[in-house]
Design a protein that fits this description.
It is a single chain. By secondary structure, this protein is mainly alpha-helical. It has a domain at about 20-60. The protein has one helix and no strands. The chain has one helix at about 1-55.
Length: about 60
């Protein structure tokens, strides 16, 4: 009986640690996607500003 309780406790601890790992992974992936969106916006605005600067320098 004690063996079954001990095994159950080990399984619960294992599942809790796996759950924590999954939550950390989700948190990291969300942060990465947010960072990527920010970088994409920056790149887009930099390209636009370069285009505008080049456009102003060219004669019509």
């Amino acid at each position: 009986m004690e063996m079954a309780i001990q095994e159950k406790d080990e399984v619960i601890e294992n599942l809790q640690s796996k759950s924590e790992e999954v939550l950390r992974y989700i948190d990291k992936s969300e942060k990465c996607s947010i960072r990527e969106k920010i970088f994409q916006k920056r790149r887009k605005s930099q390209r636009l500003s370069k285009f505008i600067c080049l456009r102003q320098q060219l004669p019509y």
